[in-house]
Structure formats: C-alpha cells, structure tokens
From TrEMBL:
One of its GO terms (molecular function) is 3',5'-cyclic-GMP phosphodiesterase activity. CDD domains: class_II_PDE_MBL-fold. PANTHER family: 3',5'-CYCLIC-NUCLEOTIDE PHOSPHODIESTERASE 1 (PTHR28283:SF1). This is ZYBA0S05-00430g1_1. Gene3D superfamilies: Ribonuclease Z/Hydroxyacylglutathione hydrolase-like (3.60.15.10). One of its GO terms (biological process) is cAMP catabolic process. It comes from Zygosaccharomyces bailii (strain CLIB 213 / ATCC 58445 / CBS 680 / BCRC 21525 / NBRC 1098 / NCYC 1416 / NRRL Y-2227).
Length: 354
C-alpha cells in the first residue's frame, strides 16, 4: 500500500527554465483534484504536457549521449512509477474537454505551495502562473508557505509591484503568504490527514555579500498510518556551520519509526568530478548523510527506503549527468555499506507512488 503520490512537474537544478524543481503531492489514490506543491519551478505548461502525453511510458528527454533515454535507466526496478498524472486525478478531470481546461483545473486545485527557498529555480513558474488565480468565474485561492527567510524574500523581492504585481496585497485575499515555524507541524490545507513540518538547512553563501543562505526540508506525515516522506530543497552538508541537517536527521530518527519512513527526495546537484558545490550536495555528501541517518537508526537500517535524487544541474558533457550521478551514488552507497536503498532519479513527467 502506498501513502503518497508525488508527481514530478520539474526536477532540474537549472538552467532549464520551466522544468526546475516542483513536486505535486497528494495522498495515494485521492479521489479529488486537490494537491499541494513543494516548490514552484514548473507549473501549468508542464501539467498540460503531462495531460497531453497521457499514461503511455515514453522516452525521457536527455539531449546527451542520446536525445532520448529509456525511463528504466533512471529508476530502480523496485520503484513504483507511472508516466503522467495519477490515474485517480485523471478520472476526476475527464469531463473537461481541452488539455488547457484540464491543466487549468489541476492548477486551480493546488491549495498550497511549500516553498523551500526563494531562489528563482524554485518559484519562477509559481509566480508566472499567479494571474490564472483571478481569470475565471470561480476564482481559486492559494497559500504560499515557507519559513520566515522564504516568505520575507518572496514578499520583498517578488510581489513588490516592480518585479511582479503585488498580488499578496492587491489580490483580494486570493493569494496569501503563511509563515511557518521551524520544527512545528501544521495540518495540510488540502488534506486534513496530512501534516507538514518544515526544518531549515544550510544552502551555501551569498555570491556578493558573504552571508549564510538557508533552504528548507519538509517532512510530510500521514496521520492515519504514520507513514512519512521527506522532501528537500537545495541543501549542503553542515560542515562547520550550525548543524541544521544533523538536527533534521536526529528529529527523524527520534520521531519516525524506520518502517514508516518511506522516502527521501533529496538533491544531488553535481557529479563527483565537480570541485565546487556552491551550497549543494554531491554523491559522496549524499551517501555520507544517509550513512549518518543509518547510524542513528542502528546497524540494520534504511533498506527498502526510496531515495529519489533531484536537482541535477544541466552541464556541457557527453553523458547525462543524472545517469552519472545515479551510478556514482549507488557505487558510493555500496562502498559505505548502505544496502537495499531504492535509488532513483526524479524524472519530469512521471508520478512516484511512495
Ligand atoms: Zn535550486
Ligand atoms: Zn538554491
């Protein structure tokens, strides 16, 4: 039995405009249109594309060694993944006639965006899509949720009438900001049975002023079953900074029984050959973090948990960096004695059942 459906609307770490990180999350088999998003790097145009291409398994755009790759290359054989939107969602959509109408209905029913941080690759499509909130007989409302550093940045630097119309003040209350508190669970607006807890993590330094940059990881918990998934934004190892990521692992190990931790969706932006990570994780760092978590749970841990790699950066190379990273992560994990983890890459246009 699966607990969550995670639709990958975008998973690139850039530059791919319109295809960067955005995950649409729903309880498994939810018989309605409602959803929430983690980040908003992709939006309605990607939803429309998924509707138009339907549920048939298709090739994954790569543009490296091959322009298209088989989806199996990106997935573990034990990953339960479907092409397109979840069937339960498609069934509710059926009465709408055009792809645009259907995509619009899915967009309308996104209740909240849980934003990890305000970097453009995590919010661009969410911002550009906001006029659609107001363009119908039945206006919909949306809440942008985040920790204080995220909501402040969105208010001051995006919806300020200079970069984008200030729909937070001038939108008749249909677009709202909700500032969350670190480590405090809140009930998901769209789904009573799901609670969401945000935790801050380190994400490098500013490029001009050397100040700390932060991002967020969100723990989703189904209150009925206790099953959890962890969805990360950009994140770097703590190093000699405040041990924020270590605190996330400690919280999880103390509060989530191992058999309830179904998946970790986490970034791995660059291959092992990359020297400077600029506030991100590479394969070795990712495996070190998982090893740390395993240590907290005890010696026999982490088998049969999904780890889904996201936010791989597009680079000028021959091989698809997502496939290189997946291979490197699997090798490093096996060298570190992490056995049985189900490693896959988040592939745009597919739904993971977790
Ligand atoms: Zn990013
Ligand atoms: Zn970032």
């Amino acid at each position: 039995m699966h607990t969550f459906e995670v639709v990958i609307l975008g998973a690139s770490g850039g530059p791919d405009a319109g295809a960067t990180q955005c995950f649409l999350v729903r309880p498994a088999g939810w018989q309605g249109l409602e959803s929430v998003c983690v980040d908003g790097g992709a939006g309605t145009s990607q939803i429309a594309r998924m509707i138009a291409s339907g549920q048939c398994k298709r090739q994954v755009e790569s543009f490296y060694a091959n322009d298209y790759e088989s989806v199996e290359h990106f997935l573990d054989k034990d990953a339960y993944v479907d092409a397109g939107l979840p069937l339960s969602l498609c069934e509710v959509l059926a009465p709408a006639r055009s792809t645009a109408q259907r995509a619009f209905r899915v967009y309308q029913a996104i209740r909240s965006y849980y934003v990890t941080h305000a970097h453009l690759d995590h919010i661009a499509a969410m911002v550009l899509d906001t006029p659609l909130i107001f363009g119908t007989e039945q206006p919909c409302s949306k809440t942008i949720c985040g920790l204080p550093f995220t909501t402040q940045a969105i208010q001051q630097n995006i919806f300020n009438d200079a970069v984008w119309p200030n729909l937070l003040q001038g939108g008749g209350g249909l677009l709202r900001l909700d500032t969350l508190r670190s480590g405090i669970p809140t009930t998901c607006q769209a789904f009573e049975k799901v609670e969401v807890t945000p935790f801050p993590v380190n994400h490098g330094m500013g490029a001009s002023e050397r100040h700390e940059v932060y991002s967020t990881v969100y723990l989703f918990r189904d209150k009925t079953t206790g099953n959890c998934i962890l969805i990360c934004g950009d994140v770097e190892p703590d190093g000699d900074k405040e041990p924020l990521l270590a605190q996330v692992w400690s919280h999880i190990a103390a509060n989530v029984p191992l058999d309830k931790l179904k998946a970790i969706i986490i970034e791995c932006s660059s291959t092992m050959a990359t020297k400077e990570l600029y506030g991100h994780l590479g394969p070795r760092n990712l495996v070190e973090e998982l090893t740390h978590l395993q240590g907290l749970y005890g010696p026999h841990a982490l088998g049969h948990m999904h780890v889904i790699i996201t936010h791989v950066k597009s680079i000028c190379s021959y091989r698809d960096p997502r496939l290189v990273i997946l291979e490197e992560v699997r090798k490093e994990a096996s060298r570190a004695g992490l056995h049985g983890i189900i490693f896959s890459v988040a592939v745009r246009g597919y739904t993971f059942h977790l």
